[in-house]
Structure formats: C-alpha cells, structure tokens
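Supplementary notes for students who missed Thursday's class. We covered one full example, reproduced here. Read the sequence, then the structure, then the short commentary at the end.
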Amino acid sequence: MARLLENDALAMLAEAGIELPRWEVAASARDVEAAAARFGCAVVLKALVPVGGRGKGGAVRPVDTPKEAGAAAVELLARRVGEFLVRRLLVMERLDIAEEQFVSLTFDPACKGPVLLYSRTGGVEVEQLAAAPGSLIRYPLNMTRGLRPFEARDVAVEAGIRGKLISELGELLPRLFHVFRRCEARLVEVNPLALTTAGELRPAAAVIDLDDQALFRHPD
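Structure (token representation):
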C-alpha cells in the first residue's frame, strides 16, 4: 500500500468539505516559525514521513510559541524517522481537545467489503483502549451505496453521542467515505477526531493508504 503524506491526506479531506484545523507545510525552521506566528496560537509540528507511530517516536511536537516552534523544527529537520529523512514539517493549529475519538474506513476480510470503525476513545493508545468490550463500533458498508447520513447518525447514537454532534457526525462520516471511495483507498483514518472544548468536531490527524493496484487510475 502507498501511504500519502499527511498534508496530502488533509487536502483530500478539505476537498470533501470537511472542516480542519489551520495547517501549513514548511521546509525550514524559519518558515515553521513564520507559520506559527501567522496562526497566533499554540501549534503542533509533525514530521512529514509516510510511516505510522510518529507520536510515539517523538516526531510530533506540541509547542506554545513561534520561537519554540523554530527551535523544535531545527531538531526535527535533522532527524530520520524509520528509513526516511525529515525534509518537511506539517505545522498545525493546536486544538483545545475535550475528547479524542477514532474513525477508520477500511476493508474487512470477514465481510468481504468496507467497514466503518468508530470509537469514542482515540489517541496514540487507540489499539489498547479500543479493545475494551463495546468501545469499538464496527459498521459494515456497501461500496456502491456508500454511507448514508442516517446510518452515520445511527452509529453516533449507538456510541452514546448526544445533541448536535449526532448531526455533525451524520455529515462528517459520509464525507470521509466519499474520500475513501473516490481515491480507492485501503484505509482512511482520523485519529484523533477531536471534540474541542467549543463543541466542534475536527480531524486532528489523518492517514490515507492507497491501493497499489488502483494507482494507475489516480495519476494525481
């Protein structure tokens, strides 16, 4: 599978009409510091490499000021993550997160089709936390019919979501499926899907793995 860099994954989510935190790509410490200054808030720096586990590997850094961002960028741009040299960084607005959720669209060999995975528990330890009984919802999907808003709302209700967030997930999840189907992905994952203290749902990170056998249909 071919993994997109996170900035490319975020761009695809934005094209689908999904609201995101502000973000920019920078290739130098000076540009990172300038981006953080433009945002005027705390930011997160992420190494743009096509591998997982960046958070546990120290390749994701929260910083509070532009000066701190520049200093962290100097260190990150001198690193190697896995077999990849870090040449560019994603500078993303740091959200004030009340709850970290998890969303994934992938293929399930058992049902021989796509499946939506959703949990109210996300973050870097999602594999362990989501293993708790009842915490991870599995919703098989029809690739042709897709994920309809009322089905997404049903998933939200099953997960214990209440109020206006049911409608928000009813719009967000079908848009994620649109991305999944349009680029013929093997995986579209948002972890965490942040519920902010202001009550908004925003993807704080995104992963898209493409199907190698379908790449010839997507030269972009």
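Commentary. The first strand starts at residue 2 and ends at 3. Residues 97 and 196 are 4 Å apart (CA to CA). If anything here is unclear, bring it to office hours.
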